[in-house]
Amino acid sequence: MSTLTARPSQRSETVTAVRASRSLTRRRVRRVTLGLLAALVVAGFARIALGKYVVAVPDLLAVLAHDYTGPADYIVWQITLPRTVLGILTGIAFGLAGHLFQRVLRNPLASPDIMGVSSGAGLGAVLAITVGGLSGVAVTLSALAGGFGLMAAVVLAAGGTRANIGRLVLTGVTGGALTSAAINAVLTRADIYAAQDAMQWLTGSLAAASWQDIARMALTLLVLLPLCALLVPAVDALGTGDALAAGLGVRVPRVRLAALGLAVALVAVAAATVGPVAFVSFMAAPIARGLGGGEGRAHHAALVGALLMVVSDYVAAEAIPNLALPVGVVTAAAGAPVLLWLLIGRGKAEA
């Protein structure tokens, strides 16, 4: 009799524990989201107002309200504000693409940078710039073609839609190396002025940010972000393993291809706009997982990517007096230690 009466109480305790765990997770997600949003707002205002020409807060508010005339009006609207807004938009794209890659492939070292997608987009853009003399939307389309072309070649070479994940990652790394070699070959034979423009683009920079670039990037995100939101639950299920995801009703090959396609589109458009900024996609997802207590969220990775772009651009432009660096230099310098740390961590885990 005591056994029969204990079972309902045990079930009640289990339900209570599950509800408490879910409530704790939701609170943590909200705290991390609000913290990242607050950090991004502070970093954005600092990037706009602080620099070689410091804009006081009252003046900045007046400039943003179109109630101010003077040097600050030009500096804010034509230089610092476009760089900040474009950094946020491209950072969202890079960070979300990194999350999709790492979740689908279940590997913290898998990212558009490591697997060569950025190089594929770079090859398409470099060919458009140096061979075709193109710019603007044409470069974006060429970068898209390069990114998708490389990803398709990697999937086919690895064995198709049901390829082993490890083989897919290794094939992507190989494809990226070959594409980087092709970029160098194109640059050595290009006109010196076109090659200089291509090299500046390859480093990644927000210096040439314009409101046209911002409009193009914003329209792209308006199309791609809702698709990502629809796909994220299935992508998160893939993170538990193909067998369990299939048991939950996820069509694994289709979801994997769709997620990789969305990630390639995000990276290609962002790279065509500001260049293939190194390691932002790679760093955003691990940082988001660390902030979330080991459980990565897509919107956290997007916000971390935006924060990385804004902070890195400020450091690149203002850290060294009389020397403005491209943002890609700073992100590469920050990403290299993160890559080493992840490699060491994986080595210890497998030992």
**Nearest-angstrom radius of gyration?**
22 Å
Shape: globular
Mean pLDDT: 83
What is the CATH T-level topology? ABC transporter involved in vitamin B12 uptake, BtuC
- The helix content, as a percent range, equals over 70%
End-to-end Cα distance, whole Å, is 51 Å
Helix-strand sequence: HHHHHHHHHHHHH
Q: How many structural domains does the protein architecture include? A: 1
Tell me the number of helical segments per DSSP (H or I, 4 or more residues long). 13
Q: Which architecture does the CATH hierarchy give at level 2?
A: Orthogonal Bundle
Low-confidence stretches: 1-6
Secondary structural class: mainly alpha
Got a strand count? Answer: 0
How much of the sequence lies in strands comes to under 5%
Major sheet summary line: none
The CATH class, by name, is Mainly Alpha
Name given to the CATH homologous superfamily: ABC transporter involved in vitamin B12 uptake, BtuC
Protein name: Fe(3+) dicitrate transport system permease protein FecD
Subcellular location: Cell membrane
Membrane topology: Multi-pass membrane protein
InterPro entries: ABC_BtuC-like, ABC_transptr_permease_BtuC
Overview in brief:
It is a multi-pass membrane protein. With about 350 residues, this protein is mainly α.
Could you walk me through the main structural features you see in this protein, from its secondary elements to its overall organization?
The protein is mainly α and 351 residues long. The protein has one domain (57-350): ABC transporter involved in vitamin B12 uptake, BtuC (Orthogonal Bundle), CATH 1.10.3470. It has helices spanning 2-49, 57-64, 71-105, 117-130, 137-158, 165-189, 192-203, 211-238, 242-247, 252-274, 280-291, 298-318, 327-350. It is globular, with a radius of gyration of 22 Å. It starts with a helix and ends with a helix.
